[in-house]
Write a structure and sequence with these properties.
Helix content is about 35%, strand content about 0%. It has about 230 residues and is mainly α. Strands 1-2 form a two-stranded antiparallel sheet. It binds a DNA duplex (11 and 10 nucleotides) through helix 3. It holds the Pfam family GcrA. This is GcrA cell cycle regulator. InterPro entries: GcrA.
Length: about 230
DNA sequence: CCCTGATTCGC
DNA sequence: GCGAATCAGG
């Protein structure tokens, strides 16, 4: 399958929208995840957070947390559309869980940094550790969890099953066409072992009828396959 | 195991 | 230029 201008355009927009390489490959069809990644890099598209990137255990992260700043990496996936309705309680809970996780991570990092620094201090009677005057500091107040709201699809997609919600238990029968504004999937429970619900399985899988018993098919509305 | 993106290298 | 194979983290 060739990289036509149109397909390259689709790749670019989906990549920039943050879809994963697998999702893009599936949507484009005829290409692998690797092909998508390879093409994205050749096109010079922005690199995305990779699981293989080198880790950054330095101080800046700690400083950001203590100054009450949320690291961009945390905030970015939840870009807020100011016109959106209130998130459901479940969504808020999910977001807050993530915030707590991030906080724990930050605390761990701070502890590690502290432990790594050489300590010069005296030991008091009974073995307690004396604190030097310079070490007196108020307990670190954790940054208040920022209220992060996940982006949500527009109202016109309410109740429609999107590409992102597909799994092997729901019907993947496409409704409409990729690229159209309300393109979505059937979303009914799938017939176990099949990618579609019972209704759409009956469209997808049809028994062969002997040629002589077949009626001439009606003319196809779109003029038939292109040659 | 599954997923992810990055990189390499033969075609 | 392309993408399968591979790597490596989550």
């Amino acid at each position: 399958m060739a990289w036509t201008d149109e397909r390259i355009d689709q790749l670019k927009t989906m990549w920039e929208k943050g879809l994963t390489a697998s999702q893009i490959a599936e949507e484009l069809g005829g290409v692998s995840r690797n092909a998508v990644i390879g093409k994205a890099h050749r096109l010079g598209l922005q690199a995305r957070p990779s699981p293989v990137k080198e880790k950054d255990t330095k101080a800046p992260v700690v400083a950001d947390i203590q100054s009450g700043e949320t690291p961009d990496a945390l905030a970015a996936p939840f870009a807020t559309d100011s016109n959106e309705a209130e998130p459901s309680p479940a969504e808020i809970a999910a977001v807050e869980d993530e915030a707590e996780e991030a906080e724990e991570d930050a605390n761990e990092t701070a502890a590690e940094v502290r432990a790594a620094q050489p300590q010069f201090r005296s030991i008091g009677p009974g073995g307690f550790v004396r604190q030097t005057p310079g070490e007196q500091q108020p307990p670190a107040t954790p940054a208040p969890p920022r209220r992060l709201v996940p982006a949500r699809p527009g109202a016109d997609m309410a109740g429609k099953t999107s590409l992102l919600e597909l799994n092997d238990r729901i019907c993947k029968w496409p409704i409409g066409h990729p690229g159209e504004p309300d393109f979505h999937f059937c979303g009914e429970p799938a017939n176990p072992g099949f990618p579609y619900c019972v209704d759409h399985c009956s469209s997808a899988y049809q028994a062969q009828i002997p040629r002589r018993d077949r009626r001439a098919p009606p003319p196809l509305p779109f003029g038939g396959p292109r040659r």
